[in-house]
Structure formats: C-alpha cells, structure tokens
Amino acid sequence: xxxxxxxxxxxxxSGRGEGGGREYNYSTLLEELRVRIADGTYAVGQSLPxxxxxxxxxxxxxxxxxxxxRELKDEGWIQSRQGSGSRVVKSPIHxxxxxxxxxxxxAALGPxxxxxxxxxxxxxxxxxxxxxxxxAHVRLQxxxxxxxxxxxxxxxxxxxxxxxxxxxESVQLPYPRALKPMGExxxxxxxxxxxxxxxxxxxxxxxxxxxxTTSLREALRNLETEGLVPSVAVEVRSVPLxxxxxxxxxxxxxxxxxxxxxxxxxxxxDDETEVDxxxxxxxGSTLIRHVNDEGDPNSTGSVFIESMQAWFDACWERLxxxx
Length: 323
Known about the structure:
By secondary structure, this protein is of the alpha+beta class. Helices cover 37% and strands 22% of the residues. The longest helix is centred in the middle third of the chain and has 35 residues, at 191-225.
C-alpha cells in the first residue's frame, strides 16, 4: 500500500520523493526543495514539513535535512525559528538582515521564463555565474509542456533556442572567498590552510554549475527526443569574465538585469565543514526588468535591450568558447 503525505500529496512509500525512485543526498535534496519553493508547492508564508517528515519522504538522515535547511536559510528562501520550524519568507533575506514589512516589488525570473515559453519559438540568451536559478524554472516549463501534451495531444512549442554564457573554469573568481571555518578564530588559519579551503569552495561552485547546466540541457533535449518539441538548440559557452551581474534576454522583447551583491555567509561543504565566506547570492537577487518599446527605439527599455544584446553577441562571437 502506497503511503502519501497528507499535506503535499508526495509518495513516501519507499523513503524517496516522487522522482521515480531517485536517490537523494544533500545536493539533490537541496535542488528539489528549491524547485518546490520556486513552483509554489511551498507557498510564501507557508510552514515547511518537519525535519522528520523530510527525512522520511526522501530517505535521508536528519543531519542532511538540517544542512539543506541551513543552506536554504542562508540563500534567503526560508526563515527558521527555534521551536517553530521553517517557513518560506515573503521576500529573500540575507544572513543578519531583517525582512522588510512591505518589500519593494521586484521583477522575477519565473514569470519571465513563463512568458518566453508561451511563444511558439522560445529564444533566450543568458549570462550568469551558474545556471542554478534558470535550471529550476526551465525544468518547470519542460514539465508543463509534457503535461499539456498529455492533456491535449497538441504540440504548442515549435522550437527552443537557448544560448548561455558562463565564466570559464580557468578564471580565478573573487567569490566565493573562504574566510575561516565557522566558530574558529581567524588567527588559527594561515594562508596555506585558507588556500585549501578556498579551492574546496571554488570546486563546490564549479560542481553546482556543472550539475545544473547538465540538468538544464537534459530537460530541454528530452523534449525533442520525446517528440514534444520538434527542434531544440541548446549551446553553452564559457567566457573569461567574472560576472558582476546576471542577464536574461528575450531578444528584441525584454530583459532582466541583476547585479550580484557580495554578502558574508556560511557555506556547507560535502564533509559538513561550515566555512565563513564572502559570496554572492544569485537565488533571490534583485532583478530589474526592461521592455522593448517597438514604437520608440529611443526609450530607456529599447536602448537597454539593444545595447545588452550587442554586448552579449560580441562576447558570444569574440570571447567565448564552447563548453
């Protein structure tokens, strides 16, 4: 008999989530919970399941669940209080920052990607530090295409074109930058020890990028393999630049632009070492929307989109190499 979570309708009969028997660990559980928050499964203001419920559903230890929740809190997705559990916050927060009662309205990546995928031909150009945020939203759209085809039997998306620029792995990024393990005095760690920590958190970042880039590619290419989208073109190139901002372009239509804010936060390594570090938070960062005004080529939105498209195309053609 299949046991189903009464609160969220998840199959927990085998100690795993609904991913067809997917094996969960720290990284995959973190990814799953990010997606659930992004797609509204855990709505803003809603309390999350308990640590025990998560452990039972995904077949992981309570320690793993605690690490994942700490990471989500550091990234600004959730807020936790002793004895009260965790809940999805109204607006993203950074460590040590109190959320505002009436946050400013911000542009969001989810609706932007939804608008792109509402067109028969999906065109996206992206420059980002990792593909983490985009991956979650693209996989949601891929699942929507699959669900709609099952429901109607019709193909609505004719072609998907995605070009993505990521920083070259050879580039020495200034963030994340290790400071010291949490709770340890700074004088206890010399340059050589910090260098080792630095390489570990840089490799962690590279691992995040590889994982989400692979996930995104597979999600889109599977649509073509399954016959749900006749043509899919996904190309990723690396460029010798340090991203100071993220850029999402729907060529000739609209753009999202967001600067990366450097913050101090803790980073959890695979061996559960907690490292104080300077880092940037892509998930939940402020995004500014610009819209092309077809009737006024001199409008702020039109000029911004034209100039950023020219910048992207120049980097793509002259600086980038295929990953």
